[in-house]
Amino acid sequence: MSDIALFDSHCHVDFHHFDEDRDAVFERMREQGVTRVLAVSVELEQTPRLEALVAARDNVWFSVGVHPNHEVDVEPTEDELIRLAAHPRCVAIGETGMDFFRHHVDPALQQTRFRTHVRAAHKVSKPVIVHMRDADEATLDILRQENIAGCGGIMHCFSSSWSAAQQALDMGMSISFSGNVTFKRNDELREVARQVPDDMLLIETDAPYLAPMPMRGKRNEPAYVRHVAECLAEVRGVSLATLAEQTTANAMRRFGLS
Ligand SMILES: [Zn+2]
Ligand SMILES: [Zn+2]
């Protein structure tokens, strides 16, 4: 057992990658002091699976939303998002945002989808989980236009500049770092992470993707968020206990948990 309590604010533990050993994954997580996770949606067909996951565990919450670069037959509507988000353990809308790294989904459609999510989030007063990849300007513009400050949100797997971070922070967004902050070449990203205010910092794995050092290349899992926390503690010059305390309190506050 561990004496710290970390919150993995973004992972995909319901994915098939964990079907063979999900219980063991949760056990290893507990051993590493990772006491809570948010299981994030990428398509609405996933919602029953997420509902089943949270019904079986008291330390998992979930979100509803459709990933910006995920091809779907039917676009999500505001009403559908609002209806699904009514579940008592649904604490966020997303992941949504803009992603120009790959063009599976047309940018114009991504933009419409993103706006739909933010509008639904306003109606249900839940934060928005924002995925921003190679699309800083487009993402930040929409956040501004849709008044994200009204419902708040999280820049997940943040990997952009300090200027982009500042713009997001000015809108009241939390900044969440994942495994890529631990990668050797990412000095610049660590410098961004050093500057994020104590009360706006979150940590995540985005498991099964993007395992942190020294697990890089393996399947990621929530237990490894500890490596992200250790890296950020070092960068920010605080103890792991302090970093854990801050980021867990931030996640609880952001997701409206007590
Ligand atoms: Zn993402
Ligand atoms: Zn994700």
From TrEMBL:
A divalent metal cation 1 binds at H10, H12, E95, D206. GO terms for cellular component: cytosol. InterPro entries: DNase_TatD-rel_CS (IPR018228), Metal_Hydrolase (IPR032466), TatD-like (IPR001130), TatD/YcfH-like (IPR015991). A divalent metal cation 2 binds at H131, H156. Pfam families: TatD_DNase (PF01026). Gene3D superfamilies: Metal-dependent hydrolases (3.20.20.140). This is TatD-related deoxyribonuclease. It comes from Mariprofundus ferrooxydans PV-1.
